[in-house]
Every structure is written in C-alpha cells, then in structure tokens.
Amino acid sequence: VHQSKLDFFCKLGYGKQDIYKVLENLGQEALEDDVLKELIRMGSKPQALESQAQPCLLKLVARGSCSTTPGSKWLGEDESDSSDYLRPIVIDGSNVAMSHGNKEVFSCWGIQLAVDWFRERGHTYIKVFVPLWRKEPPRQDSPIADQHILGELEKQSVLVYTPSRKVKGKRVVCYDDRYIVKVAYEKDGVIVSNDHYRDLQNENPEWKWFIEQRLLMYSFVSNRFMPPDDPLGRYGPTLNAFLSKKPVLPEPKRQPCPYGKKCTYGNKCKFYHPERSRQAQLSVADELRAKIKVPLSLGKEEEECNYSP
Predict the structure, then answer these.
(1) Which candidate, 214, 206, 248, 252, places its Cα nearest to that of 231?
(2) In the predicted structure, residue 14 carries a pLDDT above the cut 90
C-alpha cells in the first residue's frame, strides 16, 4: 500500500522526500485525498509545473540584465530607432573629397572622415554620391588618393555612383548635383556640401527654399571634419537642432532698450526693459499719474491726522 501511494504521487510529479514526510505524519493508511491536501498545504509543487515556470523567470532575468544574452537584443532597439529623430544625410562626395585634397587631389579619406562623423552622432541613413568615372585609374590631370575607400563604402551601401559613359572616346557624365538635391529633398534630409547649387535653385523654386534651409557647410581642420555650430547663421538653430527632425527652438531673446530707464515710449517701446519685467508696462501718462497719486494721498492722511479731534 505504501509503495502504491508513493508511485501514484510520483507520477503526479511530486518529490519523494515530500511524499515520505506526509506519509510519516498521516500514516500509511491515510487516504489519497488527505495526502494530496497535505502536499498542497506544505507548498509542494509538481515538477512539471516548476519546469514550466522556470523559463519565464529566465526570460525576465535575461531581458533585465546587462549580459550579452539573446534577451539583451531588446536593448539595441533604441539605437536602431535613431532614424526617427535624426535627419538623413546626403553628402556631395566630389565636393568633400576635393576640399580635403586642397582642390588638387580627389582625397577619398575626406569622404570617410565625413561619414564617420555622422555615424558617431547616430545617423543611420547616409548616402555619398560620386561620379562613376572616379572608379577608373587615376591620371595626371585628375589624381585620386586612397581610392580603395570608395570600394569599401560601396560594399557598405553608403556610396552611390552616378552614371557616366564614353561615346566615341568622349566621356558623357550625368549631373550628379541633381541626384544629390533630389534625394535629399525626397528624404527631407540635409545636404553636406560647400556648393550653393545656384543653377538648381533657379531651376526649381521648391529646391531653392530647400537648399537655403538644409545646406550644411563644413571645414577640414587637421584631418578633422568640422561643420559649423550655427549652420544658418548667428540667430538660426544650433547644429543639433539643424540635424534633428523635431528641433527644440530656443526662446527669442529681446534686445534691451538703448535708452534704458530714460525711455519715454512706455508700453509702446518694442525693446526689452528689465526694470519693467515684474510689473506691467504702463504708458507714460499712467506712470506719471501713479507717481503723483502717492504724495497726494500721503498729504491727505497728514491733514486728517492734524484736524482730527
């Protein structure tokens, strides 16, 4: 009888030690229902239920931990979502390469420096446009430095060659600037170039506004790619706001009044008066009335005090 009960509860998934304890307390003649109630009261669980609960706990620990487990892949979603708040970048490869090469050599290393700068900021959409004939071996009239970088960027799907071909020994080149402006306009991105694209501005009025507002100029300082902190001028947005899709515009700063406290325009003055910030700006007549009422009221109080019985 003892062995049959032991086998029965073992099949249910309970441990042998828990079953031995219950049978010793209740006796070998105890009913199966009583033994089951005692096992439940002791908090004993079948092994099948414990095995189902363990994977859930492991998943929770993995997602919350900082280890390199498969659950930690959830932590990388924030990095991939950077395209939600950063604008796409379209780089004029010829302009950047010639600027880095002092307008004498087509320096591909300058393109790599620009791409790395935007990658470090978290931009995921970066495209560089270069004419196809730059893949040809360099010549004396068009020297190229570090040409292997173009092939590496092409494998990374960053560099795009604009089409060109030869007809009767003459090279026919497509206008790569139109590619650059068109892609940046469709992606609502930023153009990285020191070129003003004046011919394209006259060609399309929508492109004119876009080039004026989304052109990011730059400089190279000791092999360092450096765009300006104020791309649209002194009173424009900062570089971070310029490269963001939803920039936080700073509050406009009001110019202080050159006359200061001697200003006679009152609330009609368009300049800022720090001495009037805490109180409403009154007109000149109201200010004079307010100053006159104070001594008059004091004089009436003194007369009332003197003539009072």
Answers:
(1) 214
(2) no
